[in-house]
């Protein structure tokens, strides 16, 4: 029987509280696109992407209209390009990047991710060439996103790669200085990067993935906040957690329905659903707002990390009951520039860099979309990355750094990117010198619990 209350509840989630399918991301393996000739590689890549993704945007738009559920982004993730490009006799990764940009533009997707390398134990020639090409590639494209995995709980932290990526981040920001360093906003450094993540900038098609699959990212911070605000003000933590689980189940069920039907229409397997609560700059669509609904004055108050830990856990517990295939990152994102409440907290000084780092020990990803002074030394950026990689390595979780050293701007100023990337205040970082530590290079060994075979 039709339950009118459930219908009205879903309508309210969409219309009043910003429930949406944040992304449908088609993962495409490019492993069979290799050739010794870079021109053949580019042709193979373009032809394969446009073949599989030619109907992605059209069909997603149809489902959006049929179900009246917003599908905000349509994206593609691909095999890490360092693997494909290194088959060439004379690799030209910038040429490949431009090919990816053209393919993404021609099929109409918002972003394409996978200009990536996985280097937690060391770098091949192809890895090195790709990493060196990242700043130029990102400065000459709009839709391309890049990621490099430099650490894992099994292998430890590749400090040579950490230092190199700090230089690459700085150069990416400098080459796009006229756009407030947006190149660095499309680049993320990972520990324990998952190969089925549908969210940018870190999405790529992992080594164990099928030829093609559809991964879904759902979101609904506004829905969770509204549900918490509707509870009795004296509700205890257990009641709070149960309510979040119930809402997460409903949000995930929506994504599961759309994901499976869209995958079937595209004629490809359904991959995973990523349960992440991904905020936007829109008022009412904020993870920080959930903290306030829980009783904290603002994000950054003592208790914020505990609130985030409960939120993350409850979202996963509720969501996993609605799908047999949960993956990606799954949890709650805390990007500073993309969350209206986080922007306000950072602007008012409530949310410090150190507090953000503490929160990443329990959140879905890590230090995300944080703008820092453009004159921040490379060694300081390397120290920031190393700290975040250590949190992921020790805790067997995915952590990441997407940080933007904005050329010509300093503390007290802000950058405005618009759209989902939002705006961000320039946040202070430690003035203490990390140089003599990060320059040692080598690998920080994996923790003892990595020996679990």
Describe what is shown at a glance:
This protein has helices spanning 4-15, 38-53, 56-67, 81-85, 93-107, 125-139, 159-175, 182-185, 221-230, 237-266, 287-294, 304-320, 340-347, 353-359, 378-395, 435-438; strands at 20-28, 71-78, 111-118, 144-152, 156-158, 187-191, 212-219, 270-274, 367-373, 399-406, 414-418, 422-425, 443-444. The protein is of the alpha/beta class and 453 residues long.
How would you describe this structure to a colleague?
There is one protein chain. The chain has 2 domains: 23-191, Anaerobic Ribonucleotide-triphosphate Reductase Large Chain, CATH 3.20.70; 220-444, Anaerobic Ribonucleotide-triphosphate Reductase Large Chain (Alpha-Beta Barrel), CATH 3.20.70.20. Helices cover 44% and strands 18% of the residues. It has helices spanning 4-15, 38-53, 56-67, 81-85, 93-107, 125-139, 159-175, 182-185, 221-230, 237-266, 287-294, 304-320, 340-347, 353-359, 378-395, 435-438, and strands at 20-28, 71-78, 111-118, 144-152, 156-158, 187-191, 212-219, 270-274, 367-373, 399-406, 414-418, 422-425, 443-444. The chain starts with a helix and ends in a 9-residue tail after the last strand.
* Total number of beta strands: 13
Number of helices: 16
If you compute it from the alpha carbons, what radius of gyration comes out, rounded to the nearest whole angstrom? 21 Å
User: Which CATH architecture of the largest domain would you pick?
Assistant: Alpha-Beta Barrel
Q: In whole angstroms, how far apart are the ends?
A: 50 Å
The low-confidence parts are: none
Element pattern in H and E? HEHHEHHEHEEHHEEHHEHHHHEHEEEHE
Largest sheet: 11 strands, mixed
- Mean pLDDT across the residues is 90
- Tally of individual domains: 2
**The level-1 CATH class of the largest domain:** Alpha Beta
In percent, how helical is the residue content? 40-55%
Beta-strand proportion = 15-25%
